[in-house]
Amino acid sequence: MNTVSVILIALVAVEHLYILVLEMFLWTGPKARRTFGTTEDFARETKALAANQGLYNGFLAAGLIWGLLHPDSGFAFQLQLFFLICVACAAIYGSVTSSKSILLKQGAPAGLALAALLVAHFM
User: Fold this and answer.
1) 37: left (phi over 0), alpha (psi -120 to 50) or beta
2) SS3 25
3) pLDDT tens digits, one per residue of 20-63
């Protein structure tokens, strides 16, 4: 089960790196506008805000990667647990304040990774 949790955590990290790229570098382009359902004017006006959001997504990814690479398994577990809970909280908040689909797109992968992490750790 440890392999499953590592794969799922890595996928959550990659997802948040992808969001970082969309929000920080591609926000005004057609791909990001289509993904987030924004207009060209809105994207241009909110570019700095989106870049800030992207940076936070990058911090989540960095924390998960740190947890995957840390040599101390006990501390690595704590890092993974903390950052997965952060992702889950962000997904819940985003689903309430922005779009319900965030819970499925970001919350579900984090929840699955969290469940796999806990099973791997306690079994």
Assistant:
1) left
2) coil
3) 999 999 999 999 999 999 999 999 999 999 999 999 999 999 99
Q: Confirm if 67 and 83 have CB atoms less than 8 A apart.
A: yes
Query: Roughly what angle, to the nearest 10 degrees, separates helices 73-97 and 47-69?
Result: 150
Could you give the CA distance from residue 35 to residue 38 in angstroms, rounded to a whole number?
8
Q: Which two tokens stand for residue 37?
A: 């359902």
Q: Which of 92, 19, 71, 79 is nearest to 11 (CA)?
A: 19
C-alpha torsion sign, points 63, 64, 67, 69:
negative
- Side chain identity, residue 101: S
